[in-house]
User: What shape does this take?
Amino acid sequence: MKPSTRSRASFLVPGENASELGFCALTRRIMSDITDPAMAPGGHLRLEWAYRRMPVLQHLRERFVADKPLAGHNVAACLHVTAETANLMEVLRDGGAEVSLCASNPLSTQDDIAAALVERGIPVFARRGEDTETYYQHLNAVLDTNPSVTMDDGADLVTLLHTTRQDITPLGSTEETTTGVIRLKAMAAEGELRIPVVAVNDSATKHLFDNKHGTGQSAIDGVLRATNILIAGRTVVVIGYGDCGQGVAQRADGLGARVIVVEVDPVRALSAAMEGFEVRTADQAAAEGDLFFTVTGDIHVLRGQHFDVMKDGAILANAGHFDVELDLAHLREVAVARREIRSELEEFELADGRRIIVISEGRLVNLSAAEGHPADVMDMSFANQAMAAEWLLANHQDLEPRVYRLPEDVDAGVAAIKLASMGFDLETLTAEQVDYLESWRHGT
Ligand code: NAI
Assistant: This one.
């Protein structure tokens, strides 16, 4: 039985004869498809390092070990294969689930983490840089486990469940990111959604911290690792001032950049203006920026008309979920020359001699050029994920095929544990204050 290699994208379909297929990384004879099992030792260390900064998940793990709320269920997860995700997988397994994992993006897989998880007995189907065909083979592989719960980051698994894999009907699914929630709500609005889904992204302890502080810091981290440029004194254009864009703008500002925000929503644009940022249209900002971040969840927010006026050397980074925010097909078409100038950095030379630099093929910059969000925020996001799986299994009989939020007391619980882990105490209301706040009779 040979371990798989990158050049031989071997693949095992559950139920088929492994020896006929030739496969897979199998230290414990579990079905997997990863790049290199020998990378496991480094993965174990990174996984452990991340776990130390995940106190909410640690807390939850104790309860999951004792109560086994997921016992008897398969959970199929399609998430970025990172150290933090690995810790979530272990907590789900401690909660009694059989788990399997595939990647939610072809470029975000950390191969050492995939190897470590396989060594820990968790099936992983993910190779960094996998092609589209392999990506979808891997999604199908986790669905082949006939899961009770699927976990998505971008709604690719749920989309398969509504297209080519209608043979599988989980009791429910969870969704990690804004773009996935938008897709799911669109499916529900068209009456197409056939299972209940928990929008983990909509929990306050997810999007207010993960999207803002996680993306804010790690998107900058991705740019720094890919380019090693100095941010101070540069003009940074942030397109999309949602939770993620606010984080990126704040961090760029903190590093000394001049920040320009581009928005289509007047309230968010106004908010950016009152935070002290300049607000422009994309056409205006295109000519001024040194470094651009797209964080909209939208398509082609930077396109031909913008590339036409950009400065020589302008750097483009996308932190939105899909690689559609930059119109790279157009850039590839009009470029007279292309080269990889550094790892994760492609330079496009235009006919007039200007060069435009794109990081990581326009894929999520924080996950493809850096390591993704720090464990400190994924702690809360993934505690919410684990509790969403638990909630779905406990309540599925009463749920309709629509998009749900986790109850607010879950948010409060997650925030309280996190706060305590940081060494901070909460003020409590006095009886007089409770009475005052609950009554309408008090006036001047
Ligand atoms: P959001 O919905 O809070 O913000 C998006 C903003 O973009 C909105 O204010 C919207 O008005 C604006 N927008 C949309 N189209 C635009 C256009 N053409 N020009 C200018 N502004 C436009 O969404 P959030 O949570 O900030 O997420 C943004 C994207 O980032 C999504 O695709 C989400 O899935 C992804 N995401 C990425 C993460 C990462 O690790 N890189 C983490 C979390 C979310």
